[in-house]
């Protein structure tokens, strides 16, 4: 799953911002619990959560090791580069790295009050946001967590820092929001001030946990004496060195370069076993609860994950890749003390069509949409996980959100006859093999995805649907498709994956506007001036009605392009035993509040 960062500003008191997962509905404060075995909703809030603030409760904890199964493996400490940007890194790093915000299980945006005293808009013209860091916050290597780290985060994500030859010094997956900050200043060690060139309502989505890397590690490894003295237009050699380290050297795990600022630190990473070990961060100033040790294992086969919980090999099964057989297994384990939960996520499964290959032909894009019967996919693959699952008919909005309109019900699943007519009308003709062709190009292509049983099943269903229309599809499974650079490089015909979002909409801009450099998540090559201008207007808007109107305009233009076909809002499913309560947070996974887990009595 890919991640991004997206929030509805109109659904929050102040403001809010989307991840590759590989998005929620209504007021961003409720999630569907269809299928859960108990009152899962009560587990969606932190034990010490208070109003708009989050702190980890200081609980008795859990002596011993808790083993957690997730769908895919860890690849990078810096999760904000295009080739590491993955929900599966976020699911681990949420316990390791601290940021300004915490999202609870209801997708409520809270101040991380263990690390920050406040985030305050001190001026509207220009918009100025001041962050106050708590005294005595430290990285696990005893270095201060302070304003230097916030400044580095802005420098790396701003898109303004260039090498001598004019290229991006830091290769960030997205610059949305950060690029609007034209002044970032450390007023003192604990006070960070940001001034914006234009209003940005989703400011609370910036400087999240995965965005803040340790400035002192960059300084030590690049011989930069003080990162805060390095401006985006400053010494090109220093910017190049800092950007190269930030982009390339925070991958995998190297203990001396990858300290923790959250309640846990990474102590081991076995790439072959796809396992990460976390232990308590001794310098953490917040609550001291949670398990003594956590082992997070990648288990790509969701059915095997369910069996592992049944057999006592893991304590928590946490899957964002729902599987009907696995769901039934997990729900059957209540007599063993297992609690099962499921809920709608701020995540959607979709097909992206590559404009740089044969799908530059709009008729072929339209015909593909017409042959894909999403209701069949949803009924066969999701009903056992979430009984009321339905196809998703918007890219920008989730069902129940203000602004949601059905933009795909009239475009997708119209059948083989409609698709064949679309191709015929556009000059395609069936060959002797029954497959349409035009100008020597057969309507034959691959759907690429990572190793995932449900996605394989999805492609199998679509292959059958397309064959009847004279379209030939091949399944291409690549275990490293999402994290090996192929997706980011646009190396596919059709990509099947998910986008996972925080409750902010602004960062969807990076996925769909025209790509001008490598700091973009628009891997498919979509370029449409209406989409570009609508997102620009929405992100800059200060009036919520204007913002909503422009997000809807962008949503309609994406649909009219036949660029991305949404399949469904992906439900999560998780189960656990031996722990008092666990909740699968839509964006950050189950470890978002692991520091307050207790052993079940």
In brief:
The protein is 22% helix and 23% strand.
Core attributes:
D-Maltodextrin-Binding Protein, domain 2, single chain, 24 strands, Dipeptide-binding Protein, domain 3, SBP_5, 601 residues, Dipeptide-binding Protein, domain 1, 13 helices, 4-stranded antiparallel β-sheet, 12-stranded mixed β-sheet, Peptide/nickel transport system substrate-binding protein, alpha/beta
Instruction: Tell me the fraction of residues in β-strands, as a range.
Output: 15-25%
How many domains make up the 3D coordinates?
3
As a whole number of angstroms, the C-alpha radius of gyration is 23 Å
Q: What name does CATH use for the topology of the largest domain?
A: Dipeptide-binding Protein, domain 3
What does this 3D model show about the protein?
The chain is an alpha/beta fold. The chain folds into three domains: 76-249, Dipeptide-binding Protein, domain 1; 264-344 and 572-599, Periplasmic binding protein-like II (D-Maltodextrin-Binding Protein, domain 2, 3-Layer(aba) Sandwich), CATH 3.40.190; 346-570, Dipeptide-binding Protein, Domain 3 (Dipeptide-binding Protein, domain 3). The chain contains 13 helices and 24 strands. The protein has helices spanning 87-93, 147-157, 215-222, 236-248, 302-310, 324-331, 362-371, 374-381, 416-425, 453-467, 509-512, 529-540, 544-561; strands at 2-4, 6-7, 19-21, 53-54, 62-70, 101-103, 109-112, 116-124, 127-133, 181-188, 191-196, 264-270, 275-280, 291-298, 316-319, 339-353, 429-430, 436-438, 441-442, 444-449, 472-477, 494-500, 503-504, 564-576. Strands 1, 3, 5, 12, 13, 14, 15, 16, 20, 21, 22 and 24 form a twelve-stranded mixed beta sheet that branches. A four-stranded antiparallel beta sheet has the order 8-9-11-10, covered by helices on one side. A three-stranded mixed beta sheet has the order 4-7-6, with no helix packed on it. α3 (215-222) crosses α4 (236-248) and α7 (362-371) packs antiparallel against α9. The protein is globular. One of its GO terms (biological process) is peptide transport. One of its GO terms (molecular function) is peptide transmembrane transporter activity. Keywords: Signal.
């Amino acid at each position: 799953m890919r991640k991004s960062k997206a929030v509805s500003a109109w659904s929050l008191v102040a403001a809010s911002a989307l991840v590759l997962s590989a998005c929620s509905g209504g007021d961003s404060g409720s999630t569907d619990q269809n299928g859960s075995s108990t009152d899962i909703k009560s587990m969606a809030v932190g034990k010490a959560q208070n109003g708009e603030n989050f702190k980890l409760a200081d609980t008795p904890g859990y002596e011993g090791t808790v083993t957690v199964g997730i769908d895919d493996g860890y690849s990078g400490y810096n999760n904000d580069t295009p080739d590491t940007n993955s929900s599966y890194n976020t699911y681990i790093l949420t316990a390791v790295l601290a940021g300004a915000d915490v999202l609870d299980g209801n997708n409520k945006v809270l101040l991380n009050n263990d690390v920050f005293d406040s985030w305050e808009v001190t001026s509207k013209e220009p918009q100025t946001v001041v962050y106050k860091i708590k005294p005595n916050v430290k990285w696990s290597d005893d270095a201060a967590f302070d304003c230097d780290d916030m400044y580095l985060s802005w420098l790396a994500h701003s898109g303004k820092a260039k090498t001598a030859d004019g290229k991006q010094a830091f290769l960030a997956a997205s610059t949305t929001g950060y690029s609007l900050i034209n002044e970032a200043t450390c007023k003192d060690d604990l006070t960070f001030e940001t001034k914006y060139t234009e209003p940005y309502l989703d400011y609370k989505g910036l400087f999240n946990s995965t965005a803040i890397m340790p400035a002192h590690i960059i300084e030590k490894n690049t011989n930069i004496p003080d990162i805060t003295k390095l401006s985006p237009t400053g010494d090109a050699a220093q910017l190049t060195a800092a950007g190269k380290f930030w982009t390339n050297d925070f991958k995998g795990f190297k203990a001396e370069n990858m300290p923790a600022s959250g309640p846990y630190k990474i102590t081991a990473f076995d790439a072959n076993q796809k396992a990460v070990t976390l232990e308590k961060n001794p310098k953490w100033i917040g609550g001291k609860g949670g398990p003594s040790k956590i082992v997070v294992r990648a288990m790509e086969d969701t059915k095997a994950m369910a069996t592992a919980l049944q057999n006592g090999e893991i304590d928590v099964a946490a899957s964002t890749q729902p599987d009907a057989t696995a769901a039934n297994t997990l729900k059957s384990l209540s007599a063993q003390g297992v609690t099962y939960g499921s809920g709608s996520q701020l995540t959607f499964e979709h097909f992206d069509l590559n404009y740089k290959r044969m799908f530059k032909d709009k008729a072929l894009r339209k015909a593909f949409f017409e042959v894909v019967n999403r209701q069949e996919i949803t009924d066969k693959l999701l009903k056992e996980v979430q009984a009321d699952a339905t196809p998703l008919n918007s890219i920008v909005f989730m069902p129940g959100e203000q602004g949601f309109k059905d933009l795909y019900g009239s475009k997708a699943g119209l059948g083989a006859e409609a698709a064949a007519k679309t191709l015929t009308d556009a000059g395609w003709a069936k060959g002797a093999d029954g497959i349409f062709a035009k100008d020597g190009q057969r309507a034959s292509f691959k759907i690429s995805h990572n190793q995932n049983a449900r996605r394989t099943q999805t492609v199998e269903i679509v292959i059958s649907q397309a064959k009847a229309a004279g379209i030939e599809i091949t399944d291409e499974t690549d275990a490293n498709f999402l994290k090996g650079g192929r997706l980011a490089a646009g190396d596919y015909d059709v990509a099947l994956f998910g986008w996972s979002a925080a409750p902010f909409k602004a960062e969807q801009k990076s996925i769909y506007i025209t790509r001008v450099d490598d700091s973009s998540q628009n891997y498919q090559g979509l370029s449409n001036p209406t989409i570009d201008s609508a997102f620009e207007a929405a992100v800059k808007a200060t009036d919520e009605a204007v913002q909503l109107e422009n997000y809807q305009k962008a949503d309609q233009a994406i649909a009219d392009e036949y660029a991305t076909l949404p399949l469904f809002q992906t439900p999560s499913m998780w189960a656990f035993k031996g722990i008092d309560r666990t909740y699968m947070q839509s964006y950050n996974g189950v470890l978002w509040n692991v520091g307050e887990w207790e052993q079940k009595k």
